[in-house]
Amino acid sequence: MQCREKLQEFLQQPHQQKAPARACGRCHDFWGQVLLLPMRILRTSGYFVGTIKEDITLRVCTIQGAVDFIFGGAQSIYEKCTISVLGEALGEGISGIITAQGRDNPYDASGFVFKDCKVVGSGTALLGRPWRAYARVVFYHTNLTSVVLPIGWDAWHFAGQENRVTFAEYGCYGLGQILRRG
User: Fold this and answer.
1) What single string gives the DSSP state of each residue in 7-26?
2) Is 143 helix (H, G, I), strand (E, B) or coil?
3) Chain Cα centroid distance, residue 154
């Protein structure tokens, strides 16, 4: 079975059945270290990373979705990926949310890093919201197009506890970044 087929099989499993899987030799250990193949991942809502706590690096991939489509408590790096928001799936006036990270204590090493990526798509979206109290997400040198709402992030159920959450952008550019600085 090819890497893409294994990933599709994995993503189609019910949430409670998700477990690390092996991929072909070109991909290393599927969720262990590095997944190098370009691929397209489509999630309207729910989870991509899910509850997996293993490290994962995706390079030169396209990840599409609408709400919380990059989700969970893993330590993940997305390098040179296209993050595509499917706003049309939500209906008029409803904004998407790209990430919902689940770091649950200050000593947890988990978090999401988006390096040299591009956020595109239809409609509008927030970069993320915390799924757990110590969520950590960084967008680094990423092209934030006009899809990104000027507010950028939402504290969600952790309003008033924002000092625990790390949502950061460094060296980002694009119309979405310009509108945010506005």
Assistant:
1) HHHHHHS-GGG-------GG
2) strand
3) 15
Cα distance between residue 10 and residue 94, in whole Å: 29
Q: Is residue 2 part of a domain?
A: no
Q: Do 147 and 179 meet the contact criterion of CB atoms below 8 Å apart?
A: no
Answer whether residue 21 is part of any domain. Answer: no
Q: Which amino acid is at 15?
A: H
pTM (two decimals): 0.75
Please, which residues bridge with residue 65 across strands?
A: 85
Residue 163: exposed, middle, or buried by beta-carbon count in 10 A (0-12, 13-18, 19+)? exposed
Domain housing 89: 32-181
Residue 116 within a domain: yes
pLDDT in tens, 99-125: 999 999 999 989 999 999 999 999 999
Q: What angle do CA 141, 30, 136 make, to 5 degrees?
A: 40
Q: How far apart are CA 91 and CA 106, in angstroms?
A: 37
Residue 8 CB partners (closer than 8 Å, separation 6+)? none
